[in-house]
Specification:
six-stranded mixed β-sheet, alpha/beta, 5 helices, Spore Coat Polysaccharide Biosynthesis Protein SpsA, Chain A, 2 domains
Length: 205
């Protein structure tokens, strides 16, 4: 969830910047370790970006939204692949820009974000969306469910079939999944071929 992203444009124009990074003041250090840390100087310019830092130095988290000018293309061209994952990291390209003397600032325009890395993240995002829309369930098109009264905080995809009147609490069930179990389904992600159990997800009311 973001605030007015036009703040990034305003900042870029006003300060003659080559890039603006959307950031969030983050109190959860584990969340920063899963994203990247943004280190700024006394002048507010970005001095360093650290992908998935082991040691968190501040509470400024990068959130994966960027505003670049044309300097980014030269930086990307000179960005090496990472040794561990053999990928191009956008944070490495940003660091190349920093070292080239590009003027980069951060804008705290993100109120809430979540990395979709683990199955529990997918569960969290869907349940948050349910809560935000004032609903306790989403039943997809052409789903076949015997007893809707036993379903809460759940997302069921299209053409889902639930064959027995079981209790269903806090799952995400993919399109086309056939549920035949007689046991309660709780805190999991179901696909047509597997069940991925997740830690309990608590969404504030």
């Amino acid at each position: 969830m973001a605030k007015d992203l036009s703040e990034m444009l305003r900042l870029a124009d006003a300060d003659d910047l080559q890039a603006v990074l959307a950031t969030k003041i983050e109190q959860n250090r584990d969340a920063i370790r899963r994203n990247f840390s943004v280190i700024t100087g006394d002048d507010g310019l970005v001095r360093r970006v650290i992908e998935r830092p082991r040691h968190v130095r501040n509470n400024l988290k990068g959130c994966g939204l960027y505003l670049f000018d044309l300097h980014v293309f030269d930086a990307v061209r000179r960005t090496p692949r990472t040794a561990m994952r053999d990928e191009y990291e956008i944070t490495n390209a940003i660091q190349v820009m920093v070292e080239d003397g590009c003027r980069i600032k951060s804008a705290n325009v993100v109120e809430e974000d979540l990395n979709l890395t683990y199955p529990s993240d997918l569960l969290m995002v869907n349940l948050k969306q349910l809560r935000a829309t004032g609903r306790d369930r989403h039943i997809g098109e052409d789903a076949e469910v015997i007893d809707l009264s036993r379903i809460r905080d759940s997302v069921l995809g299209r053409h889902t079939v639930v064959k027995r009147p079981i209790r269903i609490e806090s799952p995400v069930i993919y399109d086309g999944t056939v549920v035949e179990t007689e046991r309660t389904i709780r805190n999991c992600v179901l696909t047509p071929t597997q069940v991925v159990q997740c830690a309990e997800v608590r969404i504030p009311a």
